[in-house]
Design brief:
Strand order of the largest sheet: 3-2-1-4-5-6-7
Order of helices and strands: EHEHEHEHEHEEHEE
CATH architecture of the largest domain: 3-Layer(aba) Sandwich
Structural class: alpha/beta
Bound molecules: 5-O-phosphono-beta-D-ribofuranosylamine
Radius of gyration: 16 Å
Length: 200
């Protein structure tokens, strides 16, 4: 059985969706550990309530490389095969990315490469795009970069606010993140340049 490591900093709704799909057998893996850089993250409390192994690893005061050495130790000890960033609000160091090369996924609430970084849904709304969405991608040491595994689009409606658009995107995040994780775990892909394409 493959082992997932979840990294989160906040609410944890993507983690919850992943956990539900693991429990339902739609993701061929178990959750080995849930780690947060914020001890008070609601997502960490949800994981604890589910009886999953959790680790709070506060990031304050550490430089990125030093922190990530500790993070790696936690994930290594839990024998994690695939790391899923689920609202994890820190860039990973080059050393971490090298150690877990092609074994880290992220979900971002825009159709990358448009609108990387914070407040992606607000950026999309302000820019006036007519289609917004979300992206699951492999993680490298750059922000919201790395080969794209899956995307889903949603229409931007005339009456949308940041809240209403974010909610519609979030529903798609919850749907495609688990699909992408299952696809990667099954190894049904190869990476050709930046393109993640079907291996069959
Ligand atoms: C999501 O919008 C995700 O795309 C972004 O951060 C948010 C996390 O939400 N990376 P949640 O903690 O999963 O509810």
């Amino acid at each position: 059985m493959k082992r997932l490591g979840i990294l989160l900093s906040g609410r944890g709704s993507n983690f919850e969706a992943i956990a539900a799909n693991v429990a339902a057998g739609r993701i061929p893996a178990e959750i080995a550990v849930v780690v947060s850089n914020r001890a008070g993250a609601p997502g960490l409390a949800i994981a604890r309530d589910k009886g999953l192994p959790t680790v709070a690893l506060p990031s304050g005061g550490f430089d990125r490389e030093t922190y990530d050495v500790q993070l790696r130790a936690v994930l290594d000890e839990a024998h994690v095969d695939l790391v899923c960033l689920a609202g994890y609000m820190r860039l990973l160091s080059a050393g971490f990315v090298r150690a877990y090369e092609r074994r880290v996924l992220n979900i971002h609430p825009s159709l990358l490469p448009a609108f990387p970084g914070l407040d992606a849904q607000a950026q999309a709304l302000e820019h006036g795009v007519k289609i917004a969405g979300c992206t699951v991608h492999f993680v490298d040491e750059y922000l919201d970069a790395g080969p794209i595994v899956m995307q889903a689009g949603v229409d931007v409606l005339d009456g949308d606010t940041v809240q209403s658009l974010s909610a519609r995107i979030l529903a798609e995040e919850h749907r495609i993140y688990s699909l992408a994780i299952a696809r990667v775990l099954r190894g049904q892909y190869k990476i050709d340049g930046r393109r993640v394409i079907s291996a069959f």
